[in-house]
Amino acid sequence: MPTLISCIDATLRAIGGAPTYALTDNEKTVTTDRIAGVAVRHPQIVAAGKHYGMQVHTCVPFDPESKGGSEATVRIAKADLVPTGANLRPDYGSFAELRGACALFCQQVNTRTHRETGRTPASALDVERRRLHQLPVTPHTLALGESRTIHTDQTVRFGSVRYSTPPGLVDQEAWVRVDGDELVAVVDLAQLPHRPEWLQGPAGLTEVARHRIALPGRPVIDPAHYPGHPQDAGGAPRPPRPRPTTEAEEAFLALGPGAKSWLVEAAASGTARMRVKMAAAVELAALVGGLEVDACLGLAAAAGRFAEDDLMSIVRHRATGQRPSDLVVCDEKHSAQPGTSAWADFGRTPAS
Predict the structure, then answer these.
(1) How far apart are CA 101 and CA 144, in angstroms?
(2) Residue 163 forms part of a structural domain
(3) What does the pLDDT look like over 106-142, one tens digit per residue?
(4) Which residue, 50, 53, 261, 285, has fewest beta-carbon neighbours within 10 Å?
(5) Does the residue 236 lie in any domain?
(6) Is the alpha carbon torsion for 160, 161, 167, 169 positive or negative?
(7) Does residue 160 sit in the same domain as residue 184?
(8) Residue 307: domain span
(9) Cα–Cα distance between 79 and 100 in angstroms, integer?
(10) How would you classify the pairing of strands 205-212 and 146-149?
């Protein structure tokens, strides 16, 4: 049913209006039963017809004027748009590419002069459009798909697969439908109690997520929908983002990016008395300047120096005018350990 209503909505919007009547075949989505030869219409189809301002009719079996017309449209579509003698799958990587090619084809043939009428189909449609009803701004909710509730993990469940949605939509109603080989999620943003930060433009029925269709047991999660998650798409932990909760923490982090780097690296190395050292850095910034202390904190973070007097030592060293590149970096080739040559003869008997 959502697929049928979505196709009707797309067709009417491509035409630019709704006719008074729409003729369709006797599929169960339109006709639920026949009593004494009278078609019993599906209630949802009736509601959709009222939404667009048209009445849906089903063709009469074995009637060339109605049944033949309905079958003729299917025959034309099969012969012209999807030829049975050719396989289109190798030519298009996705259903979206095929749909784009069809739109380009329609634009070409609708602007080509017809040899019988002597005018283009687009100009003929302009004349017919004057007799059509104006379409509503929003599509019928059935055209949007099946109703789902966005769970606390920001996902909607469709076909036993979880698909992620942007933040700020938890517990809201979403409509999901299959569009070719993709799943589309639509939310009425006008019903949200709070406007999400990512929302741009007017609120209303808005497509909030689009994913490739997946198999059951394989959730589709977009990392962009979880900007504050501590892990990236590959499972590696992201660097923590400091968020001050006290005035002391805010004063320290206000020094600059060097202070943030020092906090992250010092916490990762298990540094003791961090709050005392942070307060000392703020006091030192009042004496020598915040920019200088922030730069020294950045050097301390890069060098892994988090001892009591390391920050003051770096400040004094920079005051002498020496460049950080002139410093000697100790590695395994250099050692401050005294040699062991004096112990070479230990325990040996002196020569007589």
Answers:
(1) 24
(2) yes
(3) 889 899 998 888 899 989 888 888 888 888 887 887 7
(4) 50
(5) no
(6) negative
(7) yes
(8) 247-326
(9) 19
(10) unpaired
